[in-house]
Design a protein that fits this description.
The chain has 147 residues and is of the alpha+beta class. It has helices at residues 24-35, 52-62, 80-91, 108-118, 136-143, and strands spanning 12-13, 20-21, 40-41, 48-49, 68-69, 76-77, 96-97, 104-105, 124-125, 132-133. It has a domain at 1-63: Double Stranded RNA Binding Domain (2-Layer Sandwich). The protein is built from 5 helices and 10 strands; from the N terminus they run ββαββαββαββαββα. This is Zinc finger protein 90.
């Protein structure tokens, strides 16, 4: 069983999407993605996840432990994924281009956040004066005029 982990043989295929796995256990875990079942619940906030690994990654967000350090600037992150995204800032790689204005971004998330600026959607409404804003940051800045 252990030697299978070192080979490239993937004999267990998902009937839903065709993705192949080395072990039956890996296939079983994967099939949860298609079922929509979320059996793993965060004890901190109640959010539910399909896999235990997703829950584990999520619970790190509740912690103040930042064990992943950027070798370039020393900034620390809670997850390896967050560090990986951060290092794109140092690399200068910007593969995601806005179709509207041509500005380039290191991640698709950053691009999506930017493209929202081009839309007319304003979903954040000021409870004091009724003015609407595109982002939480915009309304937070606006709220300063009321206090």
């Amino acid at each position: 069983m252990h030697t299978v982990t070192h080979s490239d043989v993937r004999n267990h295929e998902c009937q839903e999407c065709g993705k192949k796995f080395k072990t039956k256990a890996s296939l079983s875990t994967h099939t949860l993605i298609h079922s929509g079942v979320k059996n793993h619940e965060c004890q901190e906030c109640g959010k539910k996840f399909k896999t235990k690994s997703e829950l584990t990654m999520h619970t790190r967000r509740h912690s103040d432990v930042r064990s992943h350090e950027c070798q370039e600037c020393g900034k620390k992150f809670k997850t390896k994924g967050d560090l990986t995204l951060h290092t794109l800032r140092h690399s200068g790689v910007r593969n995601h281009e806005c179709e509207e204005c041509g500005k380039r971004f290191p991640t698709s998330k950053a691009l999506n956040s930017h493209t929202f600026r081009h839309s007319d959607l304003r979903k954040f409404k000021c409870d004091v004066c009724g003015k609407c804003f595109k982002t939480k940051g915009d309304i937070a800045s606006h709220m300063k005029i009321h206090f």
